[in-house]
Automatic annotation (TrEMBL):
This is Soluble cytochrome b562. GO terms for molecular function: electron transfer activity; heme binding; iron ion binding. InterPro entries: Cyt_b562 (IPR009155), Cyt_c/b562 (IPR010980). Belongs to the cytochrome b562 family. The lineage of its organism: Bacteria, Pseudomonadati, Pseudomonadota, Gammaproteobacteria, Enterobacterales. Residues 32-85 form a coiled coil. One of its GO terms (cellular component) is periplasmic space. It comes from Escherichia coli O157:H7. Its cofactor is heme b. Electron-transport protein of unknown function. GO terms for biological process: electron transport chain.
């Protein structure tokens, strides 16, 4: 399809926007339920992002694909750690998790934009 690349780019962009919106929730909320819902949405967005390559990576570029997946896996791991913190009541540690997620996101954008 001619519009296939646009659709993939739009879907990837939407996943990135979901991550950004929910990182804002993590920064502003102290409600466990709200935090867990935000983290679940972020986890889903990362899963969706793993199904789509950014335009800067050609489908034949195995190394690029692997690097991209590794960056997303780092983010997914940090999301899981943040969930554990929320579940165990360590809400004061969430800003540190958000900082780590932001750092991973920025590094990923630098590599793949």
């Amino acid at each position: 399809f001619l519009c296939g690349g646009i659709t993939v780019a739009e879907e990837l962009d939407e996943s990135m926007q979901v991550l950004a919106r929910n990182m804002s929730v993590l920064q502003s909320s102290m409600d466990k339920k709200e935090l867990l819902e935000a983290l679940d949405r972020m986890d889903d967005a990362v899963d969706e992002s793993m199904k789509r390559l950014p335009e800067s990576i050609s489908p034949a570029d195995e190394e690029g694909k692997n690097d991209y997946i590794k960056e997303l896996q780092k983010l997914e791991k940090e999301i899981m750690l943040a969930k554990q913190k929320v579940l165990s009541g360590q809400l004061s540690d969430i800003p540190d998790s958000v900082n780590k997620m932001n750092k991973i996101r920025v590094e990923g954008h630098d590599k793949f934009r």
